[in-house]
Write a structure and sequence with these properties.
The protein is mostly helical and 73 residues long. It is built from four helices and no strands. It is flat.
């Protein structure tokens, strides 16, 4: 993995197990995200990522109960 790649590109490159939703508000972000195809993650890269963000670490609701009532209200 290139040391200067972005978090969005890494998330897209990991797309097998997760479904990232990177921002594409501007054309530059779309072009940046399209560059994820060039990101090649080695076994060492995947081990390092799993060390800081193991599977199952992101769990629970995005918003608390009060804020969830405001979503699509």
């Amino acid at each position: 993995m290139h040391a200067r790649t972005t978090g969005a590109r890494v998330a897209l490159a990991l797309g097998n197990d997760i479904v990232p939703i990177p921002g594409t508000k501007r054309r530059k972000y779309l072009e940046e995200n399209a560059g994820a195809d060039a990101v090649k993650l080695s076994a060492a890269d995947l081990k390092r990522i799993d060390g800081v963000a193991p599977k199952g670490a992101a769990a629970g609701h995005r918003y608390n109960e009060v804020m969830m009532k405001l979503v699509n209200a």
